[in-house]
């Protein structure tokens, strides 16, 4: 029976000097993350029923899809769908909840909203203009042109409520820019 030598008994191996690998262009331009990943799982109360959890995860993923479309399509809101997705994930999936809150694009908006910091002032004006513009068109098309007066009134009432809600959310104060260090 042969015995294999251990690392202490193995003879040293001389490796040729190799230059250190140079990073590729993609690796060289990649910026390090500016914020640490935070685990928000401790603050969740996840539903125990598996079928309900699957339904909530599905509804959250659909809301994320609508949110992505909302950022691309003019006039369609995006952030509100991410807020809805965050609620669904908070009830069903710590993994997706952490993913949404730690996302580099829409995570800061959700964390600020959740912390009660509100939304930026320009977002309030933009959202209100979109709500009023598209609701006015819908009210004219459905309520006036097609003669469905009550539907037009309901659309106008929903628009007024939406604008009222947007302006009652706290306004996020702009963060002061940090001065560059002098050399």
Number of domains: 2
- State the shape: globular
Biggest sheet strand order reads: 1-2
Largest sheet: 2 strands, parallel
Q: How much helical structure, as a percent, in the residues?
A: 55-70%
Which blocks of ≥5 consecutive residues have pLDDT under 50? none
Average pLDDT value?
80
Counted beta strands: 2
Distance between the termini: 70 Å
> What is the N-to-C order of secondary-structure elements (H for helix, E for strand)?
HHHHHEHHE
Tell me the radius of gyration: 26 Å
State the secondary-structure class: mainly alpha
Describe the structure.
This protein is an all-alpha fold and 183 residues long. 56% of the residues lie in helices and 2% in strands. It has helices at 25-29, 50-72, 79-92, 94-101, 107-114, 121-145, 149-168; strands at 119-120, 171-172.
Give the SSE map.
Layout: H1 25-29, H2 50-72, H3 79-92, H4 94-101, H5 107-114, E1 119-120, H6 121-145, H7 149-168, E2 171-172
Parallel strand pairs: 1-2
Helix pairs in contact: 2-3, 3-4, 6-7
Concise overview:
The chain is an all-alpha fold and 183 residues long.
Question: Which tags fit this structure?
Answer:
single chain, mainly alpha, 7 helices, 2 strands, 56% helix
């Amino acid at each position: 029976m042969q015995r294999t030598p251990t690392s202490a008994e193995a003879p040293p191996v001389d490796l040729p000097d190799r230059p250190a690998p140079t990073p590729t262009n993609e690796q060289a331009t990649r910026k390090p993350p500016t914020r640490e990943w935070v685990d928000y799982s401790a603050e969740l109360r996840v539903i125990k029923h598996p079928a309900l959890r699957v339904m909530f995860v599905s509804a959250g993923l659909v809301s994320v899809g609508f949110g992505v479309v909302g950022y691309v399509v003019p006039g369609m809101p995006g952030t509100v769908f991410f807020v809805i997705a965050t609620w669904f994930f908070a009830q069903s999936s710590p993994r997706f909840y952490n993913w949404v809150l730690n996302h580099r694009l829409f995570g800061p908006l959700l964390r600020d909203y959740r912390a009660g910091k509100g939304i930026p002032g320009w977002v309030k004006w933009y959202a209100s203009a979109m709500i009023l513009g598209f609701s006015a068109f819908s009210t004219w098309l459905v309520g006036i042109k097609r003669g469905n007066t009550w539907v037009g009134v309901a659309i106008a009432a929903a628009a007024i409520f939406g604008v009222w809600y947007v302006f009652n959310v706290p306004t996020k104060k702009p963060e002061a820019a940090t001065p560059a260090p002098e050399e």
